[in-house]
Amino acid sequence: MSETRTMDPLRCFLFVPADSERKLAKAEGLDADALILDLEDSVNQENLPKARVMARDYLAQSRDRTRKQQLWVRINPLDTDFSLPDLAAVMPGRPDGIILPKTYSAAEAIKLDHMLSALETREGVALGQTKILVVATETARSLFTLDSFVGASPRIYGMTWGAEDLAAALGAFTNRKADGAYEDVYMLARTLCLAACKAGAMEPVDSVYPNFRDLDGLFAEALQGRKTGFTGKVAIHPDQVAVINKAFAPTADEITFAKRVIAAFDAVGGSGTVGLDGKMIDMPHLKQARIVLAMAERADA
Hints:
- The chain is an alpha/beta fold.
- It is about 45% helix and about 15% strand.
- It contains ten helices and ten strands.
- It has helices at about 20-30, 50-60, 85-90, 105-125, 165-170, 185-200, 215-230, 240-245, 250-265, 285-300, and strands at about 10-15, 35-40, 70-75, 95-100, 130-135, 155-160, 205, 230-235, 275, 280.
- It has an eight-stranded parallel β-barrel with strand order 1-2-3-4-5-6-7-8, surrounded by six helices. A two-stranded antiparallel sheet has the order 9-10.
- Helix 3 links the parallel strand 3 (about 70-75) and strand 4.
- The chain is globular.
- The protein starts with 11 loop residues before the first strand and ends with a helix.
- Residues about 1-5 have low confidence and may be disordered.
């Protein structure tokens, strides 16, 4: 039985088509915290049988998981005929987690939880070891049901959101304004995903940045996401990995200030309010300072 992986927040998930040996080999040498072996959008339907075998073999070859990189699999949506064959094929490789796309509510996550329990039993894997990352906003209905994920399953590592599939579901021709900012409905989806994750003690993972050549734009969006409360982001190209990792690592100034905040509270016994740089700070500032230092420790590790 493979060892249970820790589930500290993952900064960067990188999509890799499961039917591309070349791209799988290239991704292995990158610093993405997790690879997503994709069986959904990046794989043609006729290639699915081959992709499932390749994903299973790739997982099996890395079963000891001595490397730091986690291995996840994006299956096809549960309302298709492909999802169960996807799961049955890859679970012998004992993935760290499953990406669940195009959900309508937590009902799909609960159903996947039950399916995983059966397959873990078949494979001799500890029950609950396989986590779930929900792609939570790819359907119109999902915007009204995000609260249903709160407390739905202990397997749910977190949720991410999707602007591209949501645009298709809404019949939109674009999801961004002329200045590059998201249109209001997609900002709503992003905000609701973040809030639901925080309400349910799940990790909020920011969506993809489709223009993989615009690394400056990616960095700005990832940094804004981190400062807003997201703990990671999904990448679609190897060049995006280092940029995302940098954005989700606190700066030297942020680390220094966090240490000063903690020291100020320590000086007064760790409670109440204290003055720092002419301003009054209280417990939320102390909590945020501890988060910054924890993020810095994970980045160093």
